Each structure stands twice: as C-alpha cells, then as structure tokens.
C-alpha cells in the first residue's frame, strides 16, 4: 500500500568524496606490447578520517594463470568456466603484468607491496582530513592478450585496447576503502582530472578519453597537420580529461578517424579499422549514435563534455570516460550495432556521471542504462513499442522461474551464475524503473531521473539517493 507522507527515506547526509589529479606519461613499445610510465598523483583527502595507507588497482595482474580471476572462474558454479580455460591456455608472452618500480610520497621513497591486482601502500606521513599529498610512481606494464575488455590485438585486430591500463588509486568513501581484487566485473573510481601523455610509434592513431592538446602537431584526423612539423619515429600525444574518474585509450595503425560535430552538443569521434565490412557499417550507424546521445542529453541531463568517441576496441561493448569501446566483429551489419551503441552511450549517464559503486549496485548502472537505452532505441528507430523494455521483463521472469535468483544486494563479482548477474542487474534493474514509472507516472519517472542527475552528477550516489529524488517529484513515500 502507498501512503502520502511527509517523512522520507534517508539520502546521504554530510556527503563528501575524495579527489585525485593524475599526470601520467608513458613510452609505448609497439613491438613488445609494453610500456614504462611515470605517474604523479595529487591526492586530496576530503574525508573526516586520517589515512595511514592508500591502495591502487593493478588490473592487468589478473590476466595470468593462478590469478584470483582465474581461480574464481575455475571454482565457479557455472560449468563453463571459460575465463579459467582461457587464462590457463595463454602463452606466457600474452600474460599481463604491472610492476611498480618505485613509489614516493612527497619526494620520499615509501613501502609498497603488490598483492596481485592490489597495491598496498604505507604512507610515511599520514594524510589528515582536508590535506593533499603527492604520490610519484614509476611503473612498467606488459599488455595482456584481450581476455576481458582490454589488451592487445583484439578480435578485430586492433593493436591496443587500453582500459584499466594504469595503476589506479582505489576509492575511499564513508564505507571505507574499496580495494577489491579484480575478478572481472565492474568498477568504482576517484573523481579528478587526468593529464596523460602517450608516446607511441608515429603510424598509430590514438583514440582516448580527454581532449588532444596538440592536434596540429599530431594530425591523424584531429586537425590539419602543421606543415612545419616533421614527425619523428614517435609522436607524443597529450590528452586532458577534466572531471572524470577514469581514462582509457586505444591505438592502431589502421584506424579511420571520422569527426561528426553535433549542433549545440559535443563533437563525436568515430575510430574503426580500415577494413570491410566496417567501412560501411561504421559509417551507417553514426547518425543513430548522434540521435542516442541527444536523447539521453534531452531526457536525463545535458552531456557535459565537448567530445565523445566511439572506438572499435576491446571485446563486446564497454563504457569509459568520454568514450566507449565496441568490437566490430560481432556487429558487421550496422543494425546490430545500434543496441550496443545505445547501451554504451547511455552508460555515460549511468554510471559514468552518476558514479555509483558498480560492484555493490550493479542494477543502478546496468539496469538504468538498459531501461533508457530501450527507450532511446524505441524513439530513434520509430519502433512505437508500448513497453520498450519488454525483453527485460521476459529475461527477468524466466530467471525467477528457475528458482535461482539471488538478492540485488549481491556483490557483482559474487553472483553464482553469470545469467543470474545479468537477469538481476540488467533486467531487474530495468524492470525496477518501469515499475516505478507505473507507480509515480512516466512523467514523474523522467523528472526523478532529471533531479537525480541535477543533484548527483559528478558524485557517487547510492540507492536511497535516487529513491529520494523519486519521492520528491512524486510526493509519495516509496
Ligand atoms: Zn552495460
């Protein structure tokens, strides 16, 4: 039963979030698929707590036999155990590796210990509330084969698909550190600015989060090359991404780079292999990608950056800062690309801008994204479906019928079955929004999403923060 009420569910009070600014420079060896890097972080502790330690994610250490990722798959309930089989069969040359060469706090070497995908660091000077510290790291990375999302030579032959490619500071919030070992699903990061320089062989076109700072010295479709510039063996690409919580890039010597400005919106960039059948399909879907971005901008909240890139890279589709990686091989016909493109662009809102902890609340990013990507497809393709997310209801109900459903509070890495994770986070999350729309009305549902964006973009909301928005626009206690 519903009652009208004047006392509401509790949203996060006294909210704070940590802040980190990254300056990184890497030197890529395209022959050995490795790079050495220098990283300087300015980490600001906005919490009320004194921090004695900090943690980093070292994701690529998961991509080798015997890792936690491999063991989790080997011991999974699902009888497929594909991840384990893939990792166990990797040639040693294709294992990933992240080595921390040195680490300093404010100029002094400090102790650190690599525990597979997590780096534990003892600060010599505890970081007091409201204070900042500088962490300088030298590191070396060997790029793994693409096993999950990132790596070298993906199924389309894209040389570098570089997601989660750098030592990445773990998030600390009012629930403490989130230094989870990487088991294959979902992310959570610290908001800040990224200044990234990538030195790579001059034949490679680099696509990345952030704005290229020296386009006239680079060319490669970003700008007309300054005629005075003679390219050396390597080019130095400098990107700045402001107000993000991650940074990704991809590079390939065969990328075509199309630039599509949107009226009153960002400039869209498309990067894809110069090979059939992509030449046709990756042109044909571009107007739809523009429509999707517009739909989300109009219905949730204005896209806040000046650039968005759709990059052929990775495996399947995955969302990143100011860009997405989508494979070509699975989607040769442009119509097959539309669903994944709508989904990945929608993720810019749910979870990139509304940066929930995906591991804990996967339904808030995958579910909300699934709901809104179906709505965008319905409009952009003129489908006129009365229930655009009918598939989500069907998927969820079919899983419920198995009797194997687990609670939505299950950690994303700890679902017993992949299908259960999918049905819960994608389908049930989508069903949650449409059921909410049934209760408060579709107009109020969109108003709730807009208020949620207004209040929580560039932050890290939790379930009650959204519910509170739905209560405020509807006047109901939910
Ligand atoms: Zn998704």
The N- and C-terminal alpha carbons lie at a distance of 10 Å
How do the strands line up in the largest sheet? 5-4-8-2-1-14-17-16
Q: What is the arithmetic mean of pLDDT? A: 94
Q: How many E-type strands?
A: 23
Unreliable stretches (pLDDT < 50, length at least 5) are: 1-9
Radius of gyration: 22 Å
Small molecules bound: zinc ion
Describe the structure.
- This protein is α+β, with helices and mostly antiparallel strands and 478 residues long.
- The chain has a domain at 19-293: Immunoglobulin-like (Sandwich).
- It has helices at residues 68-74, 82-88, 215-218, 278-284, 286-299, 334-346, 348-353, 362-380, 390-402, 418-440, 442-456, 463-474; strands at residues 19-29, 34-44, 51-57, 97-105, 108-109, 112-115, 118-127, 132-142, 151-152, 160-162, 168-169, 171-173, 176-178, 192-201, 205-208, 211-212, 234-244, 249-252, 255-261, 267-273, 307-312, 317-320, 323-326.
- β12 (171-173) and β13 form a beta hairpin.
- The N and C termini lie close together (10 Å).
- Residues 1-9 have low confidence and may be disordered.
- Zinc ion binds at residues 343, 347, 366, 369.
- Pfam families: Peptidase_M1 (PF01433).
- GO terms for molecular function: metallopeptidase activity; zinc ion binding.
List keywords for this structure.
globular, 5-stranded mixed beta sheet, alpha+beta, disordered N terminus, 23 strands, 8-stranded mixed beta sheet, Immunoglobulin-like, binds zinc ion, 478 residues, 12 helices, 29% strand
């Amino acid at each position: 039963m519903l009652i009208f009420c004047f006392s509401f569910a509790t949203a996060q009070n006294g909210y704070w979030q940590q802040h980190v600014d990254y300056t990184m420079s890497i030197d890529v060896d395209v022959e050995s698929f490795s790079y050495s890097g220098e990283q300087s972080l300015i980490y600001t502790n906005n919490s009320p707590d004194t921090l004695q330690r900090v943690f980093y994610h070292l994701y690529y250490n998961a991509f080798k036999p015997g890792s936690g990722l491999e063991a989790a798959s080997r011991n999974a309930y699902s009888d497929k155990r594909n991840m384990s089989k893939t990792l166990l069969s990797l040639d040693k040359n294709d294992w990933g590796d992240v080595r921390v060469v040195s680490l300093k706090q404010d100029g002094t070497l400090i102790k650190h210990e690599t525990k597979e995908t997590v780096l534990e660091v003892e600060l010599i000077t505890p970081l007091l509330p409201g204070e900042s510290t500088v962490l300088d790291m030298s590191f070396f990375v060997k790029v793994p084969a693409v096993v999950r999302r990132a790596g070298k030579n993906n199924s389309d032959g894209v040389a570098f698909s570089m997601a989660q490619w750098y030592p990445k500071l773990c998030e600390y919030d009012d629930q403490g550190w989130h230094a989870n070992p990487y088991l294959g699903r979902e992310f959570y990061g610290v908001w800040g600015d990224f200044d990234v320089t990538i030195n790579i062989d001059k034949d490679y076109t680099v696509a990345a989060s952030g704005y290229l700072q020296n386009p006239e010295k680079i060319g490669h479709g970003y700008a007309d090359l300054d005629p005075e510039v003679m390219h050396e063996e390597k080019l130095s690409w400098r990107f700045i991404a402001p107000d993000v919580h991650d940074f990704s890039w991809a590079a390939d010597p065969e990328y075509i780079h199309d630039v599509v400005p949107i009226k009153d919106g960002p400039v869209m960039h498309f990067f894809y292999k110069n090979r059939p059948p992509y030449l046709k399909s990756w042109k044909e879907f571009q107007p739809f990608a523009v429509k999707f971005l517009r739909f989300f901008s109009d219905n949730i909240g204005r896209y806040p950056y000046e650039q968005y890139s759709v990059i052929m890279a990775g495996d399947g589709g995955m969302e990143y800062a100011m860009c997405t990686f989508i494979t070509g091989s699975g989607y040769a016909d442009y119509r097959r690309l539309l669903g994944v493109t709508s989904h990945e662009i929608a993720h810019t809102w749910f979870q990139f801008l509304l940066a929930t902890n995906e591991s804990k609340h996967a339904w808030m990013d995958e579910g909300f994204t699934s709901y809104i990507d179906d709505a965008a497809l319905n409009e952009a393709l003129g489908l006129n479906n009365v229930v655009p997310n009918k598939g989500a209801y069907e998927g969820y109900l079919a899983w419920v019928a198995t009797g194997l459903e687990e609670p939505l509070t299950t950690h994303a890495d700890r679902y017993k079955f992949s299908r259960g994770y999918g049905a819960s986070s994608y389908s049930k999350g989508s069903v949650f929004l449409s059921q909410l729309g049934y209760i408060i009305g579709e107009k109020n549902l969109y108003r709730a999403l807009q208020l949620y964006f207004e209040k929580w973009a560039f932050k890290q909301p939790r379930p009650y923060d959204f519910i509170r928005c739905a209560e405020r626009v509807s006047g109901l206690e939910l």
